[in-house]
Design goal:
Blueprint lengths: L1 H14 L6 E10 L2 E10 L7 E6 L3 E6 L3 E6 L8 H14 L2 E8 L2 E11 L2 E5 L12 E6 L9
Antiparallel strand pairs: 1-2, 2-3, 3-4, 4-5, 6-7, 6-9, 7-8
Helix pairs in contact: 1-2
């Protein structure tokens, strides 16, 4: 049931965009509970954040945003009705260009990343930055993603 809810949300978001703004693909994925479906939303605009959603176990959706950011969205069974709206908020942030990635690199390789969402005038970190060792000695850069589709306003 969660897979169908995520699929409906993905198709609804894509339908609200210009026809060539995003490519949506589905693929089978192995998960802890068996097999599930991963939904990838790849925007056609250079510099926009891609989103991949992988529902699992009926109460969890793994969300990858941008190049390196990822997080796990889950709720207890009594709060399940809040799961899809929470995931949709993350997708909407990517669509609107309210996403940036703070990436740390060491010796030319990414050693960790953190996804941040713009809420009002403040950036809020979401997800797991991973274990970035010796952050002070690592080089940090910030990449602000652009909206998936530009409108004439």
């Amino acid at each position: 049931m969660l897979v169908e809810a995520v699929r409906a949300m993905v198709l609804d978001v894509a339908a609200d965009l210009p026809p060539t703004a995003v490519a949506v693909t589905e693929r089978a994925e192995l998960s802890a509970s068996g097999t599930t479906v991963a939904f990838e939303m790849q925007p056609r605009t250079p510099g926009a954040a891609r989103v991949e959603l992988t529902p699992d176990d009926g109460d969890t959706v793994f969300v990858a945003i941008g190049e390196h950011g990822w997080l796990e969205v889950f709720f207890g069974e009594h709060e399940w009705s809040e799961l899809i709206p929470a995931v949709r908020d993350l997708v909407s942030a990517a669509v609107e260009g309210r996403v940036r990635e703070r990436r740390w690199s060491r010796r030319g390789r990414v050693s960790g990343a953190r996804t941040e969402l713009l809420e009002g005038t403040r950036w809020r970190a979401v997800g797991d930055a991973g274990r970035v060792r010796l952050r002070r000695s690592n080089r940090a850069d910030v990449h602000r993603c652009v909206p998936w589709a530009f409108t004439d306003s």
